[in-house]
Specification:
single chain; 64% helix
Length: 112
């Protein structure tokens, strides 16, 4: 997940400008992009390994929400890697994001 973080950030920033996504999803994506790109984190990035843990968890939650409620073709349009790499990342994201209730992700990412 940490190695894929730059690709996830690119995906999030590209999707945030897509006209198909609902407003709530765009707001969540913009907030996630700002947090991931910001040098100020809950756990500072200079702390070895643990510093990137909060970034990886946030990216996992966002990616899991996107892949469950946004059309896959839209996500693949902006994904910088292969569909197979996205599938692998989706499995990891699902495991890391299991602690976030499904209804919360549905409320953020589902079209209205």
């Amino acid at each position: 997940m940490l190695r894929a973080l730059p690709d996830v950030v690119r995906l999030i920033t590209r999707l945030a400008t897509d006209p198909v996504l609902p407003r709530s999803a765009k707001i969540a994506l913009a907030a996630a992009a700002v947090y991931l790109l910001s040098p100020i984190d809950l756990i500072p990035d200079f702390v070895p390994f643990v510093g990137y843990l909060d970034d990886a968890l946030l990216a996992a939650v966002v990616l899991d929400g996107l892949l469950n409620w946004v059309d896959r073709a839209v996500v693949l349009r902006y994904w910088p890697g292969t569909p197979e790499s996205l599938d692998k990342l989706a499995r990891v994201a699902r495991l890391l994001a299991i602690w976030v209730p499904r209804r919360i992700k549905a409320r953020i990412f589902a079209a209205r």
